[in-house]
Amino acid sequence: MKSEPKLIGAGLLTAITASLCCITPVLALIAGTSGIVSTFSWIEPFRPYLIGLTILVLGFAWYHKLKPKNEIDCQCETDELPAGKPGKPKFIQSKMFLGIVTVFAVLMLAFPYNSGIFYPNTEKQIIVVDKLNIQTTEFKISGMTCASCEEHVNHEVNKLSGIVTSKASYENGNAIIEFDSTKTNETEIEKVINSTGYKVTNKKEN
Fold this sequence. Notes:
By secondary structure, this protein is of the alpha+beta class. It folds into two domains: 4-114, no CATH class; 119-205, Alpha-Beta Plaits, CATH 3.30.70. The protein has helices at residues 4-31, 47-66, 71-79, 95-109, 111-114, 147-157, 186-195, and strands spanning 134-142, 163-169, 174-180, 199-205. Strands 2-3-1-4 form a four-stranded antiparallel β-sheet. A hairpin with a 4-residue loop joins strand 2 (163-169) and strand 3. Helix 1 packs parallel to helix 6. The chain is elongated.
């Protein structure tokens, strides 16, 4: 099937595009450019459609790869074989290549749920001298679209001295942060969150 490599390429492209908004925070972590993490957040509303398209395209490619071939199909595939290698298809037309692309696509689509493995543990043991100094503030944040965004916010906030806990939630659009007010403050925390590319829209002390 001459269009098979195009189908595989299309499936790979849609899988990567669907995951761009979640891959970017990890790429930003690796590159040390925290401010670009929300660059592709606009893709998130289209993610379900891109996932569906990926499954449809790769499913169609597998259907054509596994269906019984008639004589016409066999003749077409023979015509596509490299010169001097009768009976041996190109690697890009093989089931192995399609399998590799399928596995890669699945990993891309599942990326938001396993992105935490890329973030080092920044939690630290805090010695609280006076519990009266411990303050809890809810920061309303815009721009977070998946679990990868949560991980990035928590990672950056936990770099600050005096952070006891940081629990970001893209579903609630917030981060509930517990900190020692003698070591850091709301302004510093807000500045760090904003530096990621996401924006604090409101904050409320609990």
